[in-house]
Amino acid sequence: MNDNILEIKNLVVHYVTDTTTVHAVNGMTISLKKGESLGLVGETGAGKTTTALSIMQLIPDPPGKIVSGEIRYDGQDLVAMSPAEKRSIRGNKISMIFQDPMTALNPVLTVGDQIAEVVRLHQKISRAKASIKAQEMLELVGIPGERYAEYPHQFSGGMKQRVVIAIALACNPELLIADEPTTALDVTIQDQVLDLMEKLMRDRGTSLILITHDLGVVAEICQKAAIMYAGEIVEYGTLEHIYNNTKHPYTIGLFGSIPNLNEDVDRLQPITGLMPDPTDLPQGCVFAPRCPDASEKCRAAAVPVVEVEPGHFVKCVKYHG
Amino acid sequence: MSALIEVKDLRKYFKTPRGDLHAVDGVSFAIEKGRTLGVVGESGCGKSTLGRLTIHLLEATSGSIHFEGEDISQLNRADLKRYRQDMQMIFQDPFSSLDPRMSVSNLIAEPLKIYNKFKNPAELSEQVGKLMDTVGLARRLSDSYPHELDGGRRQRIGVARALSLNPKFIVCDEPVSALDVSIQAQILNLMQDLQQERNLTYLFITHNMAVVKHISDNILVMYMGKMVEYAPVKEIFKYRFHPYTKALLAAVPVPALGAKKGRRLLKGEISSPINPKPGCRFAKRCEYATEICSTTEPAFEKAREDYYVACHHVKAINGLV
User: Fold this and answer.
1) Is residue A165 less than 8 Å (CB to CB) from chain B?
2) What backbone phi and psi angles, to 5 degrees, belong to A147?
3) Alpha-carbon span B153 to B137, nearest angstrom
4) Residue A321 burial (C-beta neighbours within 10 Å; 0-12, 13-18, 19+)
């Protein structure tokens, strides 16, 4: 019906405890075409990882709950699927690279076995063939195949992240979700890992959702970007839209907060105040309490999403009507 | 103008079962009053160890540290205590550097109590209140505990503690690395304001090139315990003589479109600093390395006015006469 590999519509995710409800994701709508790469940018607590876990159907329940909305992968709604159907997709068609390579690997299994495990889970092949496949995957991410039988502690941080990428790519997924894949790495190693990811995307036509707080990384390997704040997408568009025609006051604030390597700024322009408490979100626009342009109208009612130019969406009163 | 702090040929070797780990190997620098020296490098290059050695939190294996002209490297604990109040430190992780059982006011009052600055409790609490105003913490938080506060506020407590004894020199060990960008900008601005008001001298340790460029007057680049390049901030970003500095700066993702510089990937990873081989420590990863690089250690030599580089081929690579 269309060429969207992933469509998220009005996703709402809460974490419910006896006394409070954390509104982690509030009415998120986003779509991704085959082969596209999207950067999901936001600060701690913006709901980036919750979004990723929702797509993977890995939200811990309880306390987490997908309250409403749909997540369509290739037209099928993941939320409505049976656990067995979810398992056949997870790690196979959609897979995830986790943030911290130091903790994402099992310390008592060899890296080769950890890659082979995924393959054997989704494909009916022998142990011997799976281990050959695992060695191929190691070679693919630039690790000599002979290191198949080594344990995670024998690898450096950058190498471990390569192993994690090898696991994620072992079944040749169509959609890859990378949650801060390079945040724990040094810049020169980050450069190597980004280069590897970019090459693999290109060769295999994999779609990518890259979760990060670093606008620099997004500029390097994504085509589109979505800026998240307090569980909502406040601005969404192509890189050209987001970087060169920034509209939302929060996005403008983010750019003002980053010291830039190529420009000289005497004083940074930080966003005042703090992220709102997700158990007690403000009425109206969630960013209004920190926004330099906020008015009565912002606090009054929910803010509509406006398409300011084709494909560039902004959730701000300023651009409405 | 004379230097507030001057470090000469500082070395720190840690004993390990496999031999000596050369964490800091012959580092010298001087910082003038009111200035900031930024120390950059990747994990394991010895920058944190250098920070601790400079204020004598660690005993150096050899070398001298002169603070206001006096050699403090040979002082015993009691004599050092006089200097401690002039030299403070802001730590990286605002989550683990504060005692979870102490309230905000107790945390900030602790250094003042240790030095018996105020006999009268009312005066003490007034001073704590003033410090909280200085760093932008609301006084109503004085009875809160660290776990109730977010990272930015916790780091403000760390800054208040460091300021409480009115120091002349502060070692800042990755003070903003654990913070979100919008909060990071708030803390950086605060630190710059305080420096101007109080004529503070900073040793600013970080792996973030953009941050170090923003806050420093001079920059020292380290690689495996060695100094590789030292220069005023504007010049080092303009010339970047050393091959490692070139690679390091090229690897930083820039949050702007079209800034992409065509990757010049740095091969390999940092080798072990335990019993390092003779010659230049960067030689194995360096694209310009020749035979001399693996046999003879390069001297840290003047390349321009106030500009020093440790590389055999600096002239050839950069076309200097």
Assistant:
1) no
2) -80, 10
3) 7
4) exposed
Residues of chain B positioned with their CB less than 8 A from the CB of A213: 180-181
Between A and B, how many CB-CB pairs are < 8 A? 118
> Measured between alpha carbons, how far is A18 from A31 in angstroms, rounded to an integer?
34
Q: What's the pLDDT score for residue A1?
A: 46
Which is it for strands B226-232 and B218-223: parallel, antiparallel or unpaired?
antiparallel
Taking CA atoms, B157 is separated from A59, B201, B204, in Å, by 35, 19, 18
Contact at CB, B211 and A259, closer than 8 angstroms: yes
- Strand positions, DSSP E, B43-200: 62-67, 70-71, 87-90, 169-173
Q: Which ipTM was obtained for this model?
A: 0.82
Query: Residue A307, Cβ neighbours under 10 Å: how many?
Result: 12
Q: Is B286 on the interface with A (CB under 8 A)?
A: no
Dihedral of alpha carbons A157, A159, A162, A167, sign: negative
Q: Do A260 and B210 touch (CB under 8 A)?
A: yes
Q: pTM, whole model, 2 decimals? A: 0.86
Give the model's confidence band at B182: pLDDT under 50 very low, under 70 low, under 90 confident, else very high.
confident
What string of pLDDT tens digits covers the 321 residues of chain A? Answer: 468 899 999 999 999 988 888 899 998 999 999 889 999 999 888 889 899 999 999 988 888 899 999 999 988 899 988 999 999 998 889 999 988 777 889 999 999 999 999 999 888 899 999 999 999 889 888 888 888 899 998 888 888 888 999 999 888 899 999 998 888 788 888 888 888 888 888 888 899 999 998 999 999 999 999 999 999 999 999 999 999 999 999 999 999 888 888 777 778 888 888 888 888 888 889 999 999 988 888 888 888 899 999 999 999 988 876
Is the predicted pLDDT of residue B1 greater than 80, yes or no? no
Is the four-CA dihedral B121, B125, B126, B128 of positive or negative sign? positive
Q: How many CB atoms lie within 10 A of CB A266?
A: 6
Backbone phi and psi for residue B10, each to the nearest 5 degrees, phi listed first:
-75, 135
Residue in B182, B186, B248 closest to A187 by CB: B248
Chain B residues close to A188, C-beta within 8 Å? 42, 247-248, 251, 266
A196 → chain B, closest CA residue: B265
Q: Most confidently modeled of A280-289, B102-111, B147-156? A: B102-111
The helix (run of H) or strand (run of E) holding residue B245 is helix B243-251
Task: For Cα atoms B281, B264, A135, give the angle at the middle one, nearest 5 degrees.
Answer: 85
User: What is the layout of strands, in order, in the sheet containing A232-238?
Assistant: A94-97, A175-179, A207-212, A37-41, A224-229, A232-238, A312-314, A306-309
* Six-digit token string for A147: 């290191």
Contact of B173 with B8, CB cutoff 8 Å:
no
Which among B180, B188, B252 has CB closest to A213? B180
**B 95-154: CB under 8 A from A:** 150-152
